[in-house]
Amino acid sequence: MPTTAPLAESRPSPRRLRPGAIAVGAIVGVAGVPLCYLILSALGVTISDTGLIACLVAPTAALLLVCLIPRARGWALQAAVASALASIALVAFVAGGIALISAVLSDPA
Predict the structure, then answer these.
(1) Are 33 and 64 in contact (CB under 8 A)?
(2) pLDDT at 51
(3) How far apart, in whole angstroms, are the C-alpha atoms of residue 30 and residue 34?
(4) Whether pTM exceeds 0.90
(5) Are 58 and 32 within 8 A, CB to CB?
């Protein structure tokens, strides 16, 4: 009598972490923001607050579009979450750097 694995065990778990997706998402989240800014600048678009927000959202939105492909849905969703978290970390890093520079320059001593 042949033994076969149940169907649930033969498929990968949808909740398992995919390190490759997380790494790609983090890189896309950090590198995609300045790349989007450079592309918009090269096209001659005047960058306003809305344009900066679009540059922050664009990498995550691109990865969320990949979620439309059924076989890549789990990978792309994890990459999109990592991209969003990396974009938030980038904003915090830049805002902290600006605050630090302004504090150093405004110190009278």
Answers:
(1) no
(2) 87
(3) 8
(4) no
(5) yes
